[in-house]
Amino acid sequence: MNKDQLKGKGKDLMGRVQRQAGEWTDNPEDQAKGAGKQLEGKGQQMLGNLREAGKDLKRDLQGHDKEGGDDRKERKRNAA
After folding, report:
1. Helix 28-79 and helix 3-24: axis angle, to 10°?
2. Is 26 helix (H, G, I), strand (E, B) or coil?
3. What share of residues in the chain are helix, strand, coil (percent, to 5)?
């Protein structure tokens, strides 16, 4: 879990609390602010998910290149 995922989860949770408190107190302003914080948190979580997926893809591609390099060396040895 990266920094954006963690911060986004926190904002989402705080927004949920504020929105629910606004519903209990019949305060539409708090409901709207809470919903906005939830949306902001979900967006930040999605950004974190994208960054994490990018890092995973980079690791996979780097590992694949290393494996491919080893295969080429092996083929050269077998051909000789």
Report:
1. 160
2. coil
3. 90, 0, 10
Q: Domain range holding 35?
A: 3-79
DSSP 8-state class, residue 1: -
Tally of domains in the chain: 1
**Which CA distances in Å does 50 have to 6, 45, 55?**
13, 9, 9
Q: What is the pTM of this model?
A: 0.70
User: Residue 66 and residue 80: Cα distance in Å, rounded?
Assistant: 22
- Give the DSSP letter string of 51-76: HHHHHHHHHHHHHHHHHHHHHHHHHH
Q: Give dist(CA 14, CA 30) in Å, integer.
A: 12
Residue-wise pLDDT for 19-67, tens only, equals 999 999 999 999 999 999 999 999 999 999 999 999 999 999 998 766 5
